[in-house]
Amino acid sequence: MSHVFPRHCHAEMPTAVGGEGVFLIDSQGNRYLDGSGGAAVSCLGHGDREVTDAIKAQLDRLAFAHTGFLTSEPAEALADLLIEHAPGDLDRVYFVSGGSEATEAAIKLARQYWVEKGQPQRSRLIARRQSYHGNTIGALSAGGNEWRRQQFGPLLLDVSHIAPCYEYRERGDGETAEEYGLRAAEALREEILRLGPDTVMAFMAEPVVGATAGAVPPAPGYFQRVREICDEYGILLILDEVMCGMGRTGSLFACEQDGVAPDILCIAKGLGAGYQPIGAMLCSKAIYDTIASGSGFFQHGHTYIGHPVATAAGLAVVRAILDRDLLPQVRKKGASLQQALEARFGQHPHVGDIRGRGLFRGIELVEDRATKAPFDPSRKIAARLKKAAFARGLICYPMSGTIDGKHGDHVLLAPPFIISDAEIGMLTDRLAAAMEDVLGSDS
Ligand code: PLP
After folding, report:
1. What is the model's pTM?
2. Are residues 316 and 350 in the same domain?
């Protein structure tokens, strides 16, 4: 009997024993095409020798040094490399072990920043209803995904959730994408004014929404207007790129494509590419200087922050993304994937929308294409599709979510950046077969 506490208590899962390129292999020798990179993690694919060699070399040199006493060479080098390529005036990197730790750290840093600026009344966070910021209790309070939150209410933080930027469902008839983007951003201003501007510490959002909604990109101009609104009321902008960052959308940081720079940026997943658990929070010089010239101490920390082996892995991953020129590849292959999905599912009666950026793509599943009516949750479409795809040798990321009490199903695709055209074809074939298994002859 297994003593592992699995996520799904009754799931019978094969044992993974190997990984090669875009494939994972189980103990029976079955090969699964990793069409979602796990959860948008494995950006370099499996078995990347440069990364594993870097990890081994670091282990041989130094496995651990507590950051309360010492820094380490890979942590310093990775911070420098990230800042060299980071947008705006992001200037400092705080390493953590994953995405939830990055968003938790961001929330605490924003709070401490205002306390040290002598404005402790700025304690409120605004986030969006269509969002996921992690599973620790603070990060969960920030996220808007109802089904993940429901058992843990009343949660901890003073967070209000505003409407997302969700063109597929919210853009009005006759409204251009740009007009919608500006209108959607005004929800932030309304909420700031409702709460009182000087009680708000920060607005937190994912540039391209991942797990809650399946790669929903912002409408044009949305984030630029959000940035303007934050600046107008002196509120910090925290962008959560845990899923959409590190090249996934075709630029190292997703927000580059929207022409905005946040005050705090969270990354994880693709930073370690699955080779090591690592995340990071980048913050502006102004925030760092406030803490440095105030208490001089960020009141936060975990034992494994800035871990030498994890940062050595992150360094090898970021170097691989840049040195192998993978970002143009992500844009090119992302366009091929979008085309393949449109060719295969563009007229599918249960596909409402196919969207995304780079190799971060989402398919929204609906009961009725014309009315956009979602499936009844009791049909458990996402869960069934995940199982059917797996049986067909495809790992993809179907999820259901609830926003404002309304249910929705979608499939997230985030294959490794090294996926070939033939493998993109295999991915769409296997997904089509799984859709047919679940949705029958309608496929
Ligand atoms: N933020 C976003 C946007 C995410 O997608 C996730 C995970 O899916 C997290 C935060 C939490 O990251 P982790 O699971 O590494 O704690």
Report:
1. 0.97
2. no
